[in-house]
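step: validate -> pass
step: tokenize input -> pass
step: predict -> running
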Amino acid sequence: MVWASSLSYLSYSLGAIVCGLAALWIARAGAKDRTDRWAGVVALVLTANWCFAAASFSADHVLVQFTELTANLGWIYVLFRLFANDGRDESLRIVRPAAIALGFVESLQFVLLIIQQRYAVTPDLALLTFETSTLFRVLVSIGALVLLHNLYVGASPSSRRILRWNAAGLAGLWAFTLNYHTIAYLAGDYPSEMFAFRGLASAVVAIPFALGFAKRAAGLTFSPSRAVTFRFLSLLVIGGYLLVMLGLASWLDILTGSGARLTQVGLVIAAGALALIWLPSNKLRGWLRVTAIKHLFKHRYDYRNEWIRFTHTIGRAGLDDASLQQRVIKALSDITDSPSGLLLCGEEEGALQLAAHWRWPQMAVPADAFPLELCAIMEREGLILDLDEVREGIDYHGENALVPPWLREETRAWAAVPLIHFDRLVGIIILARPLQQRKLDWEDFDLLGIVGQQLASYLAEQAGQEALSEASRFDEFNRRMAFVMHDIKN
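step: predict -> pass
step: emit ->
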């Protein structure tokens, strides 16, 4: 195929360039105290040489196969030298024999290469030579992965921090090699598509492998942001969806007749309709985000991004002409992905009344929204009400019986967060239930409590400024009245 040939040329050219640059970088800027540094340089140079040959000739060319043999021997030697970082190449008796055995099996490829070129004159002999070669490559790949697993698992914590990037690169290299030769063994021939991507795979694994030789490799960590992770997972979902549709379409090609054509058209229409309805769904996006956060991150929240968004929301006075009270609700709602919220603030006599709402205008809130006894408990304990637990009858400080009926019956209400400033309750924010339903946990309570205190300080400062402004106006009024009375008296 023309596209496979072009892709193969570009892929292996890129692999040769990246591997060559990685070898040069390790030689010039790599950690000088790494005893395995030059082994890594040699392996990368041999891999670059193989990629150069593969970009120039076909997959079955003798030069391509010979350079691949030398590159694999180089990587086996690197794997053995990695054990020397903490002295396990000498302390573990099995390491040296295992590495020698892998090198020996890989060296047999040279014998098979001679047999293939000179003696495999019949199709049966050629097939037998091919199957033996691919089987040996599968065994070497499995052995290398097992040895790599023992290298990383048996290393001390300090050695793991040094080896993790090298181990990641080697794991990718041998895993791809294992899949490639396994498929070739089962199919009876090398898959042209996977052969075209081997050069790209070599370039990809060379980067983390080279990073492992950086002087500060132990401090390097791969920490993708939540936005990048979510977008990557979204692409995986879309890619999986397309693969399923492609598989179904290929399966329908087996059918014959007009019914098969009708079925294929119906499948395309149904798939398109499903994609238009399902993929843009906020509920699906919410579920995917919650699932990713739950399983891929230690914490639910990205605190840096949450703080940036929080300050941006509070600081933008012109945000849809929203008042400070509305921005306070939005800032807290954004943290939990709540679609709306209410703010209840206290009057002079202490009763809480509706002060502002954000995207919740139809909510009917009575004049006395919260009883004073419940306010006292939330103020004293810093209690955040999980309204789902309230509806289940769970009680911690005697608050359950005091929750007003309007709040208990409103199923959209999810949490009540007290805004406390210097041990005084400034207000309460009622958060609506997120689109992706979940239970409040300890991280929610911690973050909402801290943010609630910060919001309370903003509201208290605004109230203080309004009081000062009112006092200033009253003082100005008194001075003016004094002048008027003085003029009347005279």
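step: describe -> The chain has a mean pLDDT of 81.
step: cleanup -> pass
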